[in-house]
Amino acid sequence: MVKDVRLSQIDETNRKDHYHLTADDRCYYLYEYTSHRDYSFSATNNLISNLKKKPSQAGQSHYRYKSQVIGTCSRLLGAALNPVWLACATLVPVPGSKATGHPEYDDRMERICRRMRHPPPDVRELVRQVASTPASHEAGQGDRVTVEQLLELYSINEAIADPAPQAIGIVDDVLTAGTHYRAMYSVLTDRFPNVPIIGLFVARRVFPENPFASEGL
Asked: What's the superkingdom here (predicted)?
């Protein structure tokens, strides 16, 4: 499953699907996750569904798949990344929607980052989230967190900011509008203005095709 895995880059053909991104952003992804479809729609939808299982489901038999797909995502991203870049880069996981201490706090992205290679790469939770927000994949259109709201909640963890990173990879599971990436990029750029930053995603969100598109509907 890991053999010959490749990252694709967000470009002018698909950037409109992630409207917070700009032409200067360098964001890469492995697969495409189809919105409004359940886990049975595709292998990627199944992977993301398992990855997003909540800690409160830990006692249920299907929760074991979460740990399995964390390992899968780690191997896939680790195999796709240039080992020279990874050896000198700092991976910064995007905080989950629930702040540390919340019963649904989920460290899946940190776990993915730390298991990419052995020995582990430089993984630092440089950006902390001081309060919980609704999960983006569960929130209604009007309840989704904005870039401005995240900027109010994000802060740099100065205790682990030194030494300054040489390069930064912001790592998240699904790229949707690019809201979290934009807020993370802003906070990290303010603190480390000369450090190159890229975004790394397991998948990017796509929408199901309109079956009537050919009829102009």
From this structure: Bacteria
